[in-house]
Write a structure and sequence with these properties.
With 287 residues, the protein is an alpha/beta fold. Helix content is 49%, strand content 9%.
């Protein structure tokens, strides 16, 4: 073969071998240098490949929220600032005196405490004068008085009101008196109940737990199980009952005075007490 014919043939062979030579180099550089199928035929047929995800940095980041001006806080009153400073200083001085009770530390704390007590005393004096000039803010005029003469009048008024209330209760209420014939406290309490019944007109129903009677109530009703229902574990015991309504509420256990009976019966019969204090209300099944 002549050299003129061999040269074109050699060039064709070199161009045919060029892709194979490129495959032996770095694949990354190969793809960048020679695009097309011949440059990445090592991946095979890839026309069904899923699209590649975008890099995280390329995704649009959400816009940061716009920060408006901070709401303006109302300044503290200078008295509050002074109080907080004084409170903090007193606490620190006290803690120092506790941890290191030297004469100077204790004196410094006592001087500061005396200053605080004086300020509180001044406040109490001013508050008292305000109460004197303002009846609706005077605690001595609200509820139970503290003056001896006023207290005497208050007690008399309360007694009269309770007397009227007990007289009204006597129309449809009775007192259940649980006792034992061998109980000395029941014997001591029986005359008080007998006088209470005569004075205020409310009927006392005596119920003997052992079947025996006592002076003032010689013919009591025997217990038919109501004592166990009402959980009567101690005698004497008194209950306020409303037979037609089937309600019964405890008044007290042990020996009670006439004033205690008046106060407790009047309190137990008020609607507010019945609504807020859980009472033992049961149907009455006495024979």
């Amino acid at each position: 073969m002549s050299p003129a014919t061999f040269a074109p043939l050699l060039l064709c062979c070199l161009f045919a071998l060029l892709p194979a030579a490129a495959l032996s180099q770095d694949p990354g550089r190969r793809v960048a240098a020679v695009p097309g199928y011949w440059s990445d035929n090592w991946r095979g047929w890839h026309f069904y490949e899923d699209p590649q995800d975008e890099p995280a940095a390329a995704k649009a980041a959400p816009a940061p929220p716009k920060s408006g001006p901070a709401p303006a806080t109302a300044p503290k009153a200078p008295e509050l600032v002074q109080f907080e400073q004084l409170q903090k200083r007193l606490e620190e001085t006290r803690n120092i005196a506790i941890m290191r009770p030297t004469e100077s530390n204790v004196r410094r704390y006592m001087e500061l405490e005396s200053r605080v007590v004086g300020q509180a005393s001044l406040f109490a004096d001013v508050a008292q004068r305000v109460a004197w000039a303002t009846p609706e803010l005077d605690p001595t005029l609200q509820g139970r008085p503290v003056n001896a003469k006023a207290l005497e009048v208050y007690e008399q008024d309360q007694m009269q009101g309770r007397t009227r209330s007990i007289a009204q209760l006597g129309r449809d209420h009775v007192l259940f008196f649980f006792f034992r014939s061998d109980c000395p406290y029941c014997h001591a309490f029986a005359p008080t109940l007998e006088a209470f019944q005569a004075r205020y007109g409310i009927t006392v129903v005596p119920i003997s737990l052992d079947g025996g009677g006592i002076p003032g109530f010689p013919a009591p009703r025997p217990d038919n199980g109501i004592a166990r229902t009402l959980q009567v574990t101690q005698v004497p015991a008194v209950f306020l009952a409303q037979p037609f309504a089937g309600k019964i509420a405890p008044i007290g256990f042990g020996v009670l005075s006439e004033s205690q009976l008046l106060e407790r019966i009047a309190m137990a019969a008020t609607p507010v007490t019945e609504a807020t204090v859980p009472s033992r209300f049961h149907p009455l099944t006495l024979r």
